[in-house]
Amino acid sequence: MIITRTPFRISFAGGGSDLPSFYRRHTGAVLSTAIDKYMYIVLHPFFQKDKIQLKYSKNELVGDVNDIRHPIFREVLKEYGLSGIDINSIADVPSGTGLGSSSSFTVGLLNAVRAYLGKASGAGALGAMACDVEINKVGSPIGKQDQYAAAYGGLNLITFHGDESVVVERIIMNRAKKKELERNLFMFYLGGKHSANEILKRQQEAISNDDKFEVQKKMVQLAYDLKDRLENNDIDAMGTILHEGWLMKKSLTNGITSDVIDTLYNKGIKAGATGGKLLGAGGAGFMLFYCPGSRHEDFLVNMCGESEMKFNFDDQGSKIINIGDML
Questions:
Q1: Which residues lie closer than 8 Å to 179 by C-beta, 6 or more apart?
Q2: CA 209, 212, 214, 216 torsion: positive or negative?
Q3: Helices (DSSP H) in 24-100: which residue ranges?
């Protein structure tokens, strides 16, 4: 039995610049971190050697890989020509909530399948392969940040170039300050699921407008600014930059925010947070806030009743946590 564990991610600044409609015209950059909420992929030989059994939110038992309904399972298993296997996926957090679960699934699946075949997989290769599966083979209108965040883990600036190359640069900061940054970040579940594909399609269309393109360029600059401030251990800059980025993101297209989202955001700011943002493409999921340590007590009292999900940063990325004797 092979088990892979792949982290979800939180994007702080620069989101949307990993879409090809942007980075093919101007270098994109996202600052994000992986977190200790995970996608687990469990792969085991199946008793029926001519069948494939898949267990996710649905169950599938097929004799032909082309009959698999789940598009990512289908494309990955088709690529590697596998049969006679049983694969189960288990997630700490529901899909469609803005934490990059689809890409964590793809990265973890590739890591498990390649381990089953005795193939080594570096983080850069996993990120690139996952992008190829989701964007080129499945045809999802998504960007590249989630795949690399899941594969590498850690707090990183991820840069996207017009030649399709991607550079992952770890943020280097004082260890105590990094832990304080973790403690100052709070995440609350709004409920519901969003259709990231629909929102991202609209965002790609919006970027063709020159004014919207300039807004996205400013969002990229926020990612670079945040990198500089964090590496100088100025963690309180996180709140200001999150707030600026959230205002810019809301201006790009419809469907990113709603009355429910705006109400929760305003509640958090009044409670003592200095900034925040909705995670993911928009519409639903988790709201992230940055609150300085001196305001924690009042913040938590005023946010009582909201559904908080505690988390820490993950520094390891996608990894194999169990491997059996069948190789």
A1: none
A2: negative
A3: 71-80
Between the alpha carbon of residue 62 and those of residues 2, 70, 298, the distances in Å are 21, 12, 55
| Dihedral sign for Cα atoms in the order 197, 156, 213, 125 | negative
User: How close are the terminal C-alpha atoms of the chain, in Å?
Assistant: 10
Distance CA 116, CA 47 (A): 16
CA distance 82 to 90: 21
* Beta-carbon-side half-sphere exposure of residue 172 (alpha carbons within 13 Å): 1
Plot region of 280 (φ>0 → left; ψ -120 to 50 → alpha; else → beta): left
Q: What angle do CA 190, 150, 216 make, to 5 degrees?
A: 65
CA dihedral over 250, 205, 104, 62, signed as positive or negative: positive
Q: Nearest Cα to 288, choosing from 8, 12, 6?
A: 12
Type of residue found at 325? D
pLDDT > 90 fraction of the chain, expressed in percent and rounded: 84
Q: What are phi and psi of 238, to 5 degrees?
A: -55, -45
Taking residues 96-114, report their average pLDDT. Answer: 95
pTM given for the model: 0.93
How would residue 327 be classed by pLDDT, with cut points 50, 70 and 90?
A: very low
Nearest 5 degrees, angle CA 30-CA 102-CA 73?
A: 140
Q: Is 302 exposed, middle or buried (CB count within 10 Å of its CB: 0-12, 13-18, 19+)? A: middle
| Per-position b or e across 189-225, b if 16+ CB within 10 A of its CB | bbeeebebeebbbbbbebbeeeebbebbbebbebbeb
pLDDT in the model for residue 54: 98
Residue 315 has φ and ψ, to the nearest 5°, of: -110, 0
CB contact at 8 A, 4 and 40: yes
